[in-house]
Amino acid sequence: MRVHIKRAIERHALADYPREACGLIVADGNKQRYVPCRNIADDGADFHLPAADFVAAEEVGRVLAVVHSHVDQDAQPSEADLVSCEATALPWHIVAVGQDAGDEAPSVRGWHSFKPTGYVAPLVGRSFHHGSLDCYGLIRDFYQRELDIELLDFERPDDWWSKPESGELYLENFEKAGFVQVTDGPRYGDVILMQYRSERTNHGGVYLGDQPLKAEPYLYPVPNAMLHHAMPRLSERVVYAGYWQDITRMIVRYQQ
């Protein structure tokens, strides 16, 4: 990375502390530039680079890399970083910034750069990251890996279930994604829609029954299983009974 770009990124990261900073490196003719972007994540310890900023950067030049900061931690990529790097098909750079008690100002603690290598998060045991590694992200990955079906993705604002203006994302979009409500389920592959610690239908899982995961055959069997990813837990298979049945509001089935 060119020195002037590295210094521009560090200045941005330090200025935005304690929120994560994010931006893009672009090729502007035969030169490279760092384009600072907005972080619109509700939680400043995370980042969400808006699509409009990416489009604006593309008007400057070809996007070469994605950059963001880590706040009060090291620069090693999280599981969500690795997955998002694959999705962008671009190199990523992380700068770590932090401030200890007694420090007058935050400082740069380290750097880490990486690029796509084909990484995929496991279906069971992945960490939670809303917008990618969340309950709908797990449903999409299950359908792609286990059933070879590519489901639509949907923008989902942070904490949407507590914001009336966001609507009912699951209830408003399951038909657009190719699903219909059923009353004879659940069957293998059906999506179970639930109200998880909310007054709204904000959570989804996939019914597995007694079938194993083809992508992860080494896992121990779970009878009458549901695959799901509830915040802030790791993704897991649970017995679909008791609490999970109690909070179920609808079962939907994919129609080709």
* Principal-axes shape call: elongated
- How many strands, which pairing sense, and closed or not: the largest β-sheet? 6 strands, antiparallel
Strand content: 25-35%
Name of the CATH class of the largest domain:
Alpha Beta
What low-confidence regions span 5 or more consecutive residues with pLDDT below 50?
none
The CATH architecture of the largest domain can be given as Alpha-Beta Complex
How large is the radius of gyration? 21 Å
Topology:
Elements: H1 3-16, E1 22-28, E2 31-37, H2 51-60, E3 62-71, H3 79-88, E4 92-98, E5 107-114, H4 135-147, H5 169-173, E6 179-182, E7 191-194, E8 203-209, E9 225-228, E10 236-239, H6 243-246, E11 248-254
Parallel strand pairs: 3-4
Antiparallel strand pairs: 1-2, 1-3, 4-5, 6-11, 7-8, 7-11, 8-9, 9-10
Care to describe what's here?
The chain contains six helices and eleven strands. By secondary structure, it is an alpha+beta fold. It folds into two domains: 3-114, Cytidine Deaminase, domain 2 (3-Layer(aba) Sandwich); 135-254, endopeptidase fold (from Nostoc punctiforme), CATH 3.90.1720. The strands form two sheets. The chain has a six-stranded antiparallel sheet. A five-stranded mixed sheet has the order 2-1-3-4-5. The radius of gyration is 21 Å and the shape is elongated. The mean pLDDT is 95.
